[in-house]
Each structure stands twice: as structure tokens, then as C-alpha cells.
Amino acid sequence: MSGKNPVFSRKQESEDKDDEDTNLSVYDSQDEEDEEEIPWITWFCTLKGNEFFVEVDEDYIQDDFNLTGLSSMVPFYEYALDNILDLVSPGEDDLTVEQQQLVESAAETLYGLIHARFILTMRGMKLMEEKYRNVSFGRCPRVMCCGQSVLPVGQSDILREASVKVFCPKCEDIYFPRSAKHKSLDGAFWGTTFPHLFCICNPSLFANVTKPTYSYVPKIYGFRIRKQKKEKDQIQQQPQETRNRKEIQQPQANSASLVTVN
């Protein structure tokens, strides 16, 4: 008789199954380790809506000089800083759930403020240049700018005063970001200086960027709308009594001047 021994076959299948289970458990443990090994900075920058951020080097964050003045601006500063650097803070287990949420929010705010300083360094500008070349910040919505790439900018360096905007190097104006998620980001995380310093430090990127020479002209049935002179508009907007007073006072002033001359 030919064929496999059924006992041996079941035993072999059982061993093969055990090997498969072992391999699967190894893979699962590796996946869990990979998930645990993702640094906080990488995790934060890869969140949807955080595409404007770059990953700040840990060496930069660990230098206390670069963090001067930030401790008074962020609550739970030490906990937030340890959270960013994936360090275990003493007494962290004693925090309540609400306090842990505050620490996480403080970590995001602290990282944003550090980020605003980091992108002004040569290393930070290099990372932002890569995003600019990849049009990660979007394009200018102005038609005459022909899809010019834009840069993030803040209208204030103070927290919670204005959301982030995008600056167009061509028309030199600012606009709201296209994505609604970007509109909720604080402009202080990029600051008021970055795009202008970036343009100065990277002249080759903007050598062919010139201001638009053509502007939109309003027309009705193909004819341009004639604009009235500003002086006429101002005179028409003034009340009749104000104009009458000026007419009365003017000859008096002229006569007074004549008397003074004589």
C-alpha cells in the first residue's frame, strides 16, 4: 500500500501549524514593537492636518538655549517636554486622565513654538525647502499667479491671535489655506518671519518669480467700468452742511491772510 502514515501526517500538520502560529506571534510582536517605537515627533507630524510641520531634530530640542522663555508660555512644561522626547516623567502615573489630556495638548503647543524657532535655522529651512518643492503647502489661489507655490506664515508671533495663513512670493499677499484642517492651526507655530527670511536665503528658488504684470479688469458688456475720481467721491460723501461751512470759512481765511501781509 502506498500513501502517508495518517498519524505522522496529523503530527506533521500539527507541527506545521505550531510553526505558523509561532511565526504569526513573532510577526505580531514585531508589529507591536514597531508601533511602540514610533517617536512622538514623527507621530505628530504624520497626523492628518499637520502637513505644514517638519520634524524638529531632538538635538535641537535638548539644547536648553533653544527653549529659552518657553517654560512660562506652556502649562505642564516639564511633562510636555518629556512627552515630546519620549521620556518618562517622574510622577506621570499620578496624573489624572484630565491632566494627562492637558499634558498632551501642552506638548502639541510646545512643539509648535519650538517648531517656529527651528524653521529659522539652516537645518529647518532645508526641511521646509523640500516641502516647498513638493508643493506641500499648496498653491496661490490668485488666478494671475498661475499656481505659484506658497509658504506658511503667521500674522502674529503670539499664541491664539491668528490662524496660519499662506504667503505667495509672487503677489506677496497672504491667503487662507485651502484645507479646513490647516485653518485651525495656530499661526505662531510658523511665525511672521519665516517666509520672508526663506525667500532671502534661497534666491535661486525665486529667481524666476516675478510680480504679476496683469491684473483683472472689470467689464460690463465688454466695456471697462469707468472709475470716478476720488476727490469727487469724497465731496459727494460729505454732508451739505460741512461743505457750506468750508465755503464760508475759506474767504475769511483769505481775508485774514491779506490783513496780516499788509
Explain this structure to me?
With about 260 residues, this protein is mainly α. Helices cover about 50% and strands about 5% of the residues. The protein has 10 helices and 5 strands. The protein has helices at about 5-35, 40-45, 60, 75-85, 95-120, 120-135, 180-185, 195-200, 230-235, 240-260, and strands spanning about 150-155, 165, 175, 220, 225. A hairpin with a 6-residue loop joins strand 2 and strand 3 (about 175). Helix 4 (about 75-85) packs across helix 5 (about 95-120). The longest helix is centred in the N-terminal third of the chain and has 31 residues, at about 5-35. The radius of gyration is 32 Å and the shape is elongated.
Task: Note the gap between the termini.
Answer: 144 Å
Strand residue percentage = under 5%
Mean pLDDT over all positions: 83
Number of strands: 5
Largest sheet: 3 strands, antiparallel
Based on CA atoms alone, the radius of gyration comes out at 32 Å
The poorly predicted ranges are 1-15, 253-262
The tally of helices reads 10
- Global outline: elongated
Q: List the secondary-structure elements in sequence, H or E.
A: HHHHHHEEEHHEEHH
| Percent helix | 40-55%
